[in-house]
Amino acid sequence: MQEAPGLRHLAHLDVELAAPIELGDGPRGRRRIIPIIGGTVTGERLSGEILNLGADWQTVLSDGTAELDTRYAMRSHDGASIDIRNFGYRHGPKDVLDALGRGEAVDPSLYYMRTQPRFETGDARYAWLNRIVCIGTGARLANGVRVSFFEVL
């Protein structure tokens, strides 16, 4: 039997968001687009800025679960352009999700927000990002999201 893989911290992302664009109810749930307008990336191996480019194409399912489907770009501290696609789920008790929806500060341990980020770059200095598997933990803030990415070893 194989041992469970370990995790190594990759980076914290503080992502700034604009107001959601509500698309209304679709066949799978309530659809919305949340523009990504900036932010920072801080980590030992990956740091830089989130560009004003991208969005979360989110679907809120009938049970309140938010299906997260984000695509955005960053520029590393040394000038590399890196594409980030991040998929995941946020769910929890109704009162907690309602508080998040009102923009209230909520302890992230009270709800589940996990993601699967994928990276792509043509910059040789960061080519290793094209070949790693990561997971993310997140917290919804009033005007943004804080996500921590961990490389699966």
TrEMBL record:
Pfam families: DUF3237 (PF11578). InterPro entries: UPF0311. Transmembrane segments: none annotated. It comes from the Bacteria. Belongs to the UPF0311 family. This is UPF0311 protein V1479_05955. It comes from Neoaquamicrobium sediminum.
